[in-house]
Amino acid sequence: MIGIKRIFLIVLDSLGIGAMPDANDYGDSNNCNTLKSISKSKFFKIENMKKLGLFNIDGVNCGQKEYKPIGAFARMKEKSKGKDTTIGHWEIAGIESRTPLPTYPYGFPAEIISEFERTTSRKVLCNKTYSGTEVIKDYGQDHMKTGALIVYTSADSVFQIAAHEDVVSPQKLYEYCKIARGILTGKNAVGRVIARPFVGEYPDFKRTANRHDFSLAPPELTMLDQLVENGKDVLSVGKIVDIFASRGITEFIRTKGNKDGIECVKELLNKKFEGLCFVNLVDFDMLYGHRNDVDGYAKALTEFDIALKEIIFGLKSEDLLIITADHGCDPSDESTDHSREYTPLLMYGESIKKGINLGTRQTFSDIGATILDYFAVKQKIKGKSMLDEVKI
Predict the structure, then answer these.
(1) Contact 311, 265 (CB under 8 A)
(2) Which of 192, 220, 231, 233 has the fewest CB atoms found within 10 Å of its own CB?
(3) Which residues of 177-195 are buried (b: 16+ CB within 10 A; e: fewer)?
(4) Closest CA to 390 of 342, 362, 343, 348
(5) What distance in Å separates the CA atoms of residue 47 and residue 276, rounded to the nearest whole number?
């Protein structure tokens, strides 16, 4: 494995570390702070991220600073207009979105719903902003009686379709999502159309792991595109392949949650490839942030931290590990929506200097630029490489 360069980029979905100055512009409190909120839980214990320098990051006002961090660390500022998964991941990969993706706080326009009903030959229920767990509780029975599709949205740029797997098979639901994706273009080009299958009987409906995202294709060149163009491997773990609409990906593994994703990373540490392994761990956001579950979030981060020790041990001499996030989702906030927060950056590898504070970066795109620089790929995306500052 000597001489083969690999980077493991792990996105802890929604692990914000404090409100950005413009948080109020996005309907968020200046006090929103995902990391600080979960640090108050009795289940919060992250010794390995602490060793990397998490609590040494500028502005982090919880936890105990590490005397001699073994990693490099930074606070990442989002330059794009938005606070959602798509915008955050795109910026990590070098796209700075100047306008936010469209949202529909009062439901989708009648012309969109009528066209969707016409092309699917199914009626629509709900068409409101709703919690994913509550919407199936409130509309699930009507759906099962009538076969009508439950369409709802959130504060994010999403068109979500829920259906019981006994009424609409997951594969058929995916077809309906593709139809919606074709309708939602131009000014109505939402970031993601999401299939939300569920099972069970009222009132105990439960969403399944057969969720599937149908994202917009990135509007510009990304770090992933450049890696593939230069003969590098890009392995997707989790929903990365969906976020980038399968572009710039050479191999993908879909996962059923954090535990599955973490196990995939452990296995891929032993895989021979040269390039990037890009990982999204979605449970932090989907299961805990959006459900205001502070203890659940803390437990999940603690579980990742325990696995992190094994991940670090499994790195080869030319490997880099980068840990970051895409936005915040403060579980102690009154809202169940994402929050406009700074995100952490932790970087570790044998070729990386220990204890380097990279300060506050002005864009998530510095991550993509650094990755390209590590593989000696001429940068064509936004961002400034941090490699010169941290490389031994």
Answers:
(1) yes
(2) 231
(3) bebbbebbeeeeebbbbbb
(4) 348
(5) 26
**Dihedral of the CA atoms 60, 81, 181, 329 (nearest 10)?**
20
What is the rounded CA–CA span in Å between residue 215 and residue 224? 16
Taking CA atoms, 202 is separated from 141, 145, 170, 354, in Å, by: 7, 12, 19, 54
CATH topology identical between 6-99+216-390 and 110-215: no
Cα distances (angstroms) measured from residue 139 to each of 104, 331, 346: 19, 25, 43
**Quick one: which of 326, 338, 183, 132 has its CA closest to 244?**
326
- pLDDT tens across 122-168, in order? 999 999 999 899 999 999 999 999 999 999 999 889 999 999 999 99
pLDDT tens readout for residues 2-25:
579 999 999 999 999 999 999 999
Strand 275-281 with 6-12, pairing = parallel
Inter-residue contact 321 to 348 (CB < 8 Å): yes
Q: pTM for the complete prediction?
A: 0.93
Q: What is the CATH number of domain 6-99+216-390?
A: 3.40.720.10
Please give the pLDDT value at position 335.
86
Report the Cα 210 to chain-centroid distance in Å.
17
With beta carbons less than 8 A apart as the criterion, state whether 298 and 283 touch: no
Amino acid at position 289, single letter: G
Q: What is the mean pLDDT of residues 384-390?
A: 98
Q: Which CATH class is domain 110-215?
A: alpha beta
Which tens digits make up the pLDDT trace of 84-102?
A: 999 999 999 999 999 989 9
The alpha-helical segments, DSSP class H, found in 184-293 are 223-229, 240-243, 258-268, 283
Burial grade of 301 (CB within 10 A; 0-12, 13-18, 19 or more): buried
> Up-side HSE of residue 58: CA atoms within 13 Å toward CB?
12
267-285: per-residue pLDDT in tens?
999 999 999 999 999 999 9
3-state SS of the chain: helix, strand, coil percent to 5?
A: 35, 20, 45
Residue length of the chain: 392
- 34, 44 Cβ separation under 8 angstroms: no
C-alpha torsion sign, points 211, 214, 218, 219 = negative
Give CA torsion, residues 12, 319, 219, 339, to 10 deg. Answer: 20
Spell out the domain ranges in the chain: 6-99+216-390, 110-215
Backbone angles phi, psi at 107, to 5 degrees: 90, 170
